Amino acid sequence: MNILAIIPARGGSKRTPGKNIKLLAGKPLIAYSIEAGLKSKFINRLVVSTEDPKIADVAKQFNAEIIIRPAQLAQDETKTAPVLMHVIEELEKQNYFPDIIVLLQATCPLRDEKIIDGALEKLMRSDKDSVFTGSKLGKTMPKWKRGYDGKLVSLYDYHFRPRYQEPELMEDMFAENGALYAIKTDAFKKYKDFLGDNVEIYETPKIIDIDTPEDFEKVEKMLFESDVYML
Length: 231
Hints:
Elements: E1 3-8, E2 23-24, E3 27-28, H1 29-39, E4 45-50, H2 53-61, E5 65-68, H3 80-92, E6 100-103, H4 113-124, E7 130-138, E8 144-146, E9 152-154, H5 167-170, E10 173-184, H6 185-191, E11 199-203, H7 213-230
Parallel strand pairs: 1-4, 1-6, 4-5, 7-11
Antiparallel strand pairs: 2-3, 6-10, 7-10, 8-9
């Protein structure tokens, strides 16, 4: 099978400028995802999609293939699916037609090739059209969120407060953790999204998706402690 990994890496980042190539434990952030993808036993082509020459140069140093995306696909509001479609269309011009597309986000350095291969194997051995990595939230109490205006909004009708023992609150729940999404190409083209209509989850421990300088510090500490433990 042709299994294509795509790492989208835009140059602009308001919270952490230069985030995708910022050093994390002495290595550019994007390098962790490139290396994990290249170590996969199933992925046979890996592409970094970027509009930024600096990101392209760094990605090449770690043996990634580069596809330069147009500026209109590198805006703050740009969604991921059109970026993936651009890569697919560019590769189809080269007569390369992937069977499965794997989205690896550059901001998940703790995702390794074992997670990638486990998720892909689960997809290939099933009748599902897509798979994503997720982490268990466990048993859940009623949830609230804070709106853009600062006002608290309940995610249930608190005038009819459920008991904790009721089944809907005792079921395990999962959250997408952003480490991997994989979808069969036919389904991707049909739904124009990186999840189809027949989805499977590959459960992993909680994975930090780096977004802020504080996230960098937290993950760097985890990587350092891991190296010390391995020694």
